[in-house]
Amino acid sequence: MLAFRLIAPLVILLLSSLAAQAQETRPSTCLAMANALPGIVYVNLQPVAAQDVTITYAGHSTYVIETPAGVRIATDFAGVYGTSPTPDVVTMNKAHSTHHTPSPDPAIEHVLRGWNPEGGPARHSLLVDDVYIRNVTTDIRRYGVFEPDANSIFIFEVAGLCIGHLGHLHHRLEDAHYAAIGRLDVVMVPIDGGLTMSLDGMSEITRRLSSSIVLPMHRNATPLGAFTSRMGEGFDLDFREGRTLTVSLATLPERPTIVVLDGV
Question: pTM value?
């Protein structure tokens, strides 16, 4: 009886904590959820009908994602590309001023920085209409500078798709990173070959992610072939005339494909 009295408050505390976690964040559809919250079954997750998401290359490492509900998201936003129409959400990374702005337009409702100005890792878990946005932090490791958790890989979950933006990634990913990222149907990859990381390292990460669609960005003067040749025969290559890609669960390519939009 005494043991029960001692254990019961601990059980109640644990259940309260788990319930709070369940309320604060929406469970990711891109991660394996088995045993994440013992005994909790999410009965409101319904199969998503195939809906179109548009992804437009705006410039440098900024892609504009538009969801079926009309939410506009600009990645690695520096106030130069993707400004019109005004996005509802912007993500930023701090490695260079070309990947963030200290004075975003006040009309932007959600400004998500890939670093925490107060120290420690940035943690984002945000539901905006039909899109769930989360992040996985990475380090700044370049030119003798090391800042833990100073940048983020952002993941956008919408219309059943898992879309990832690798940001200004400086280092190879560990197993824990891959586990936290989960499945990516579409991935945006910097291919500059030096300012972020080597093409060998970036192609290794991209192959392991094995996304259906690979969208290069942050190319600078790097020949596209320097990246695509490293990807091997397992990836098709698709050059597009326009800057916008329309994609849904139903239209993902059967083989992993590197899609090069106009302007990249």
Answer: 0.84
